[in-house]
Amino acid sequence: MNVYPNISYIAKLIAEPTRAIILDCLMNNQALPASELAYMAKVSHPTISSHLSKLVEGNLLTVEQHGRHRYYRLANQEVAEVIEKLGTIAPTVEVRSLKQSGQLKQVRYARTCYDHLAGKLGVEIAEKLLDREFIILEDGEYIVTEQGKEWFLNFGINIDKADIKRRVFAKPCLDWSERRYHISGWLGSAIAKLFFEQEWITKMDKNRA
């Protein structure tokens, strides 16, 4: 009897090309209706409905009912981290147009990974915070130093009031494009929120960049 987790079940769910597109489209932690996901995946409504049902059944997605419409999102940050890490070992997509080249550059420079920043920008933020000893890595998680708490407070991020009841505070998340680590968890989310609120970055339309 195999007592280990059924990895092949999850792998089979993720491996199907249309389902992989669905998961990637939801990597920015937004909830989307089936109609929009069908458009993005270039498949019919019955096809997208079948794939969404399987992803919900496999606990990779959750569904929210708003009136007559159902909206789908990633089940949690752990799902996003699995997708991000798979990108580090996946073959590079062949660029066939100038438009694709531009999109790839945007995604590699800055994108969202669930609710935190990834890409070159996300990695450089993590490394600068480590270099300045505002955070330190201990037992696989990031810890904010006293100096770091003061620095973050200047930007309205109160570390002592972090809500970590339902999620980890801060940990390294392997970045698929940089092959280095950015910050996930509550702190990563707080940093991303700060960048968007201050309009230091803005979201591109229809992708994670």
TrEMBL record:
Organism from which the protein derives: Bacillus mycoides
Q: Which InterPro entries match?
A: ArsR-like_HTH, HTH_ArsR_DNA-bd_dom, HTH_Metal-responsive_Reg, WH-like_DNA-bd_sf, WH_DNA-bd_sf
Keywords attached to this Swiss-Prot or TrEMBL record, sorted alphabetically, are: DNA-binding
Give this protein's Gene Ontology molecular function annotations. Answer: cadmium ion sensor activity; DNA binding; DNA-binding transcription factor activity; lead ion binding
The HTH arsR-type domain sits at: 1-94
Check the record and name the NCBIfam families matching this protein.
HTH_metalloreg
> By what name is this protein known?
Helix-turn-helix transcriptional regulator
Q: Name one Pfam family in it.
A: HTH_20
Q: Which Gene3D superfamilies does this entry report, sorted A to Z?
A: Winged helix-like DNA-binding domain superfamily/Winged helix DNA-binding domain
Please indicate if the UniProt record lists DNA-binding as a keyword: yes
**Which is a GO BP term held by this UniProt record?**
response to cadmium ion
Q: Which domain of life is it from?
A: Bacteria
| Keyword Hydrolase assigned | no
